[in-house]
Design a protein that fits this description.
By secondary structure, chain A is mainly α. Chain A is 68% helix and 3% strand. Chain B is an all-alpha fold. Chain B has a two-stranded antiparallel ribbon. Chain B has a two-stranded antiparallel ribbon with strand order 2-3. The chains are: A mainly alpha, B mainly alpha.
Chain lengths: 239, 592
């Protein structure tokens, strides 16, 4: 990224201290000097999406606190029967581990992308997509298990009906985010593998030049989806 | 005001952003229909918004006819009346005002005013419009669906919104409404990201944040708010959709409908109200802030004077935007809440009056000793100030818990919000259209037709809404299909209702004059030239009028001064465009 450099040898008139920070932020052309358009857009989108998830989670907490019927015990509901005993939260622990690991591989992909090692980048993105798909698969398994045990959006055998409603709605909404992420990971990985970003090949719809920055923007989204999961995990399974 | 010799503010920094690669249309379809040019998209947004707004206008006529002549029009029964009310409110607030201010004016003015070639993501911008159109079509489909559109009131409060007693509650109406809102929010997000990033990251050289015209500040802040407020509506819509389709109980308590115990239980209708108003109150300012910004520029330009207290105006916009997120429960005083919360929300509500009052004072002080040209945009701007002050003052009544409780759900509330967020922003929209139509089309709107339109609209809307305060104080409730025999409402109230209805029909007819003017002037209007109002901002400095694809020809503009150098002493003309280099001239810009 090009930095602002006085080119004419004039004295630096920029104020110091906090006023300098304000002056930099409000200076011409760009407010965030190192952020490209795409990156700025993704950050602002994620801020908006944070409010969506925030509203979902607050609605869930309200429902859980105000329902007159007891809430099912998550330790029992989300337990798996393994080796003759119930292991609480084991599936969720694995799912969380898988998703957090995928953030690691994503970060590595971004790193290799900026080193222009396109095959490694693409492989790491594919690995990230694979881990993401595993997560969605395990979520499908969890849904199936709960559905066969009688959990429905409108009722469940153990207590407040809102348990099923909020569970399917929030994990479903998050799972949709992961699925969309996997699809875009595959699309970007294909572009990386083909060398689109080395040749700055133009996008089919946008006719903009492809850049390795797309990997990082993809990464921002992916890390966000992981971070949201941490909150869902904490509020849904640990509470 | 300090007059500083320009040039001391530092040289223009070198370019940091590469010139944008524009999508060049290859056919008529990609040039005029599936266009990625923000100016075309703006016109598409505006035409769609005004078209669906006309439907809402007709609905208001039908409502007024029923109120003035109850029982006279056989086709307006109670169900239809509620459907008209609901659709009128929802269309006006979201599909007309929000879409027109942000999608219409935002798309047209942001790139031109900040000196960009286009929005930063033209493709997403195009999608935004087509998804908005889809939302409008889904909404309009409600009129043709079995059972008609929803009649739940624009606030869509559950449980009644999804029960059979409400029109559309168990039919298609509510489903289409909720789906349409969800689609609208998705489409708006695509556009909104564009507006925000274009303002933050896509400005011309020399265009600092504190040199942006207030129009851009208003639209920018409103868009940021919309991106943070619409999620709450999105979530509320999704949850109500599940309540209605899947039988969940997010908002549905245990309830008996038509003597039958429903399967629902344990949900919280109040939760919906909180989610709705967490969106709904910022929405008021999403509509108001662009109006504030635009009217500041109209007043400054047509009074040939720099805006008074530019920095204060910017901060007032930002502070109003921030505060509007912590006042939402003042819409819920009668829903019941802890008195401490009522105290909190009443306090924050009244605090908003401070930055708002600052803005009003600054508009008036801008006019003070200005060279006021009573052009059509100026007339509408003046009408806005008067109407807005009126509506704002009644807001102080309704913001206080003890005053609000007796006034709640009376015509007083209807009068208040129509004045403050209905008529006032619409007046700005008209003023803005008279102001920027020459740039969009290259021709002026007809002055005579415009005068007829202005005086009928301004005086007529006062005649409509001012008496409603009185009706409200008498205790006439809002949303009632007919009054019937009511002991506390005197017969004169009915006479007043007939008067209001007649005025509403006249004001509606005046809008037809306006529409005729829009079309007629497109072909027969006087040639405008590039800068008919002798304005300083960048959109008037384009090499072509209407601006060509890419806005600026080969070279992007460079900005040397703020947007308000009008009547600068010592200058040859009474305006100095933002692109005029500082050397030799003077400026009234406040040093950073």
């Amino acid at each position: 990224m090009a930095q602002t450099i006085g080119t004419h040898g004039e004295p630096d008139l920029r104020p110091a201290g906090l006023r300098g920070v304000a002056a930099d932020f409000s200076s011409d052309q760009r407010a965030f000097k190192t952020a490209s358009w795409g990156k700025a857009m993704m950050w602002i989108f994620l801020l908006s999406d944070t409010f969506v998830f925030g509203c979902f989670l607050i609605a869930y907490m309200t429902a859980r606190m105000s329902t007159p019927v007891a809430w099912p015990n998550p330790s029992e509901v989300f337990a798996l029967h393994i080796g003759g005993q119930d292991v609480p939260l084991i599936l969720i622990a694995i799912m969380t581990f898988v998703l957090i690991s995928s953030s690691g591989t994503m970060a590595m992909a971004v790193n290799f992308g900026y080193r222009r090692e396109r095959h490694r980048t693409a492989m790491l993105m594919l690995l990230t997509a694979l881990l993401g798909a595993c997560f969605v698969g395990m979520q499908a398994f969890e849904w199936t298990k709960l559905i066969t045990e009688g959990v429905r959006p409108w009722e469940n055998p153990w207590g407040a009906a809102q348990f099923g409603s909020t569970f399917f709605m929030i994990t479903g909404f998050h799972g949709t985010h992961v699925t969309i992420g996997v699809i875009f990971l595959l699309i970007v990985a294909r572009k990386v593998w083909r060398g689109d970003f080395d040749q700055e090949r133009r996008g089919f719809f946008t006719s903009r030049r492809g850049r390795y920055e797309a990997v990082e923007i993809m990464g921002l989204y992916w890390h966000f989806v992981d971070l949201v999961w941490v909150f869902i995990f904490a509020f849904f399974y640990l509470w | 005001m300090v007059e500083i010799p320009s040039g001391s503010a530092g040289a223009i920094p070198s370019a940091e952003v590469e010139d944008v690669e524009l999508y060049h249309p290859k056919s008529w379809w990609t040039k005029y229909v599936f266009s990625q040019d923000a100016k075309i998209i703006a016109v598409q947004y505006s035409v769609t918004a005004i078209s669906i707004g006309l439907v809402a206008l007709v609905l208001s006529w039908l409502m007024r006819l029923q109120l003035a002549f109850p029982g006279y029009f056989a086709f307006i029964d109670a169900d239809h009346y509620y459907q008209f009310i609901t659709m009128h409110g929802m269309i006006m607030v979201i599909y007309l005002l929000t879409a027109l201010f942000l999608g219409g004016f935002g798309n047209y003015l942001i790139p031109l005013m900040v000196g960009a070639r286009d929005m930063v993501f033209p493709y997403a911008n195009m999608l935004s419009y087509w998804i908005y159109l889809l939302a409008v079509l889904i909404l309009a489909a409600g009129f043709f669906a079995p059972g008609g559109p929803t009649g739940a009131g624009w606030t869509l409060y559950p449980p009644q919104a999804v029960l059979s007693g409400t029109p559309g509650g168990k039919d298609w109406g509510i489903l289409l409404m909720l789906t349409s809102l969800i689609v609208f929010i998705i489409g708006f997000t695509m556009g909104g990201l564009n507006y925000v990033v274009t303002v933050l990251q896509g400005r011309a050289r020399g265009m600092t944040l504190m040199r942006m015209p207030l129009t851009v500040w208003g639209i920018f802040t409103a868009t940021v708010m919309a991106l943070l407020a619409f999620p709450a509506l999105f979530v509320a819509c999704v949850m109500m959709l599940f309540d209605r389709l899947l039988g969940t109980s997010f908002f549905m308590p245990a309830i008996v409908e038509m003597g039958e115990q429903l399967q629902h239980g344990g949900g919280s209708p109040i939760l919906f109200q909180h989610l709705f108003w967490f969106f709904g109150h910022p929405e008021v300012y999403i509509v108001a802030l662009p109006a504030f910004g635009i009217v500041s520029d109209l007043i400054s330009t047509h009074a040939r004077k720099n805006i008074f207290g530019y920095r204060m105006m910017v901060w007032a916009i930002v502070i109003i935007g921030a505060l509007s997120f912590i006042v939402w429960a003042h819409h819920m005083y009668v829903s019941g809440m802890n008195p401490a919360f009522g105290f909190f929300f009443a306090t924050t509500t009244l605090i908003i009056a401070i930055p708002t009052a600052i803005k009003v004072y600054n508009w008036v002080l801008t006019l003070w000793r200005g060279d006021i040209h009573l052009t059509l945009p100026m007339l509408f701007a003046l009408a806005f100030i008067v109407t807005f002050v009126n509506g704002g003052l009644t807001g102080l009544f309704l913001g206080n818990v003890v005053v609000d409780v007796p006034l709640s759900d009376t015509m007083f509330v209807v009068a208040h919000f129509h004045m403050v967020m209905g008529v006032a922003p619409i007046l700005v929209i008209f003023g803005a259209i008279y102001h920027w139509y020459p740039k969009v089309t290259g021709r002026m709107l007809n002055e005579t037709l415009g005068q007829i339109h202005f005086w009928t609209t301004f005086l007529g809307t006062y005649a409509i809404f001012f008496p409603m305060h009185y009706l409200g104080l008498l205790g006439v409730p809002r949303r009632y299909f007919e009054m019937g025999e009511t002991a506390f409402v005197p017969p004169s109230a009915h006479t007043l209702n007939i008067f209001i209805t007649v005025m509403a029909l006249i004001v509606g007819a005046a809008q037809m004059v306006f529409l005729f003017n829009l079309v007629w002037s497109l072909f027969r209007g006087r040639e405008a030239g590039g800068n008919p109002w002798r304005a300083t901002t960048l959109e008037w400095q384009t090499p072509q009028t209407p601006p060509a694809h890419g806005n600026w020809g080969k070279e992007l503009p460079v900005v040397y001064r703020w947007a308000y150098d009008y009547s600068v002493p010592g200058a040859a003309e009474d305006f100095i465009p933002q692109t005029v280099p500082a050397s030799g001239g003077v400026t009234r810009e406040v040093p950073a």
